[in-house]
């Protein structure tokens, strides 16, 4: 049986255009995603995010199910769960 520790997502490495890699907690990444999503027009959001009525729900869905968000031509935002301690 797999160890439940394998599925914890407490920390993330975040890769963003023209920025050094950053380590963020889940709550920090959630806040970052919310700020980015607030600047999107509803029609420009990916279809799977349009079913949610709040930015909070959209950001949580991304955090739970994705590892990247298309934020524009030539730009990227990616995040990957990491374990920082043994």
TrEMBL record:
InterPro entries: CRR7 (IPR021954), CRR7-like_sf (IPR038150). PANTHER family: PROTEIN CHLORORESPIRATORY REDUCTION 7, CHLOROPLASTIC (PTHR36803). This is Chlororespiratory reduction protein 7.
């Amino acid at each position: 049986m797999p160890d439940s520790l394998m599925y914890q997502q407490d920390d993330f490495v975040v890769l963003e255009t023209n920025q050094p890699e950053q380590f963020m907690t889940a709550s920090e990444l959630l806040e970052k995603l919310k700020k980015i999503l607030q600047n999107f027009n509803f029609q420009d959001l990916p279809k799977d995010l349009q079913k949610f009525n709040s930015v909070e729900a959209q950001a949580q869905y991304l955090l739970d199910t994705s590892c990247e968000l298309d934020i524009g031509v030539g730009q990227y935002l990616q995040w990957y769960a990491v374990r920082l301690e043994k």
